[in-house]
Amino acid sequence: MDWTPQSSELHNFLFRGNQPINGTQFAYTSLVTTMRSLAKSAGHDFPDNFTLLDVSYLNVFEEKDYMVEKKFFEANPNKGTLYNKIIVGSLIPPPQNDLTLTKDTVKAYVENGFDKLPEKMKFFRDLLYTKGDRPIVIYGHCEAGTDRTGEVSGAYYMKYLNLTFTEALYINNHIQNRDMYKASRNAMQWYCFYLRFVEQFNHLSCMLPNNGTHLQ
Fold this sequence. Notes:
The structure is a single chain. By secondary structure, this protein is an alpha/beta fold. 40% of the residues lie in helices and 13% in strands. The chain is built from 7 helices and 7 strands; from the N terminus they run E-E-E-E-H-E-H-E-H-H-E-H-H-H. The chain has helices spanning 28-41, 63-75, 103-112, 117-128, 148-160, 165-173, 182-197; strands at residues 2-3, 13-17, 21-22, 25-26, 51-56, 80-84, 136-141. A 5-stranded mixed β-sheet has the order 1-2-7-5-6, sandwiched between helices. It has a two-stranded antiparallel sheet with strand order 3-4. A hairpin with a 2-residue loop joins strand 3 (21-22) and strand 4 (25-26).
């Protein structure tokens, strides 16, 4: 997803994906191999010695899978740290006409909602630009890597990578052979309006393309 500039001394990385477990084991080796390959394909040297920051979006109903990760980092504290940042999405879609929205409405809904995407964007950006003894590799994930991961990643794309709402939605809708769930898409769309109305990303259009149907 992102990395610190090559001119920086940090050389940290940010990845997205699905649940990194294989049965009852945390798939550390496979995860690192995949990240190394992706970094190389993007023209970057992946560090041999790094700290993994595993950011899980799982909830209490997925405790069994979460515990696989938790036990791995408890047994291997030298590998990195596990964070649990639960993401639930939004059952309420924003009005599909931005003229009906106000800055105060969007600000209150997004900042007071459960997912608190503005806070999570700062969390990821601060991690990415943290300078430590070793390079930092951040891995954010849910179970499938499409819905909750898509919500958070899409928010990051729009705020920091200059992608449009349509471009972020297109990426998320093509991770698997299906569109992202509406609750996750709703939350990402609310955040798009937050960027536009509250943070003054005036270039953003937050309307659903093709009436929300699958993008081609």
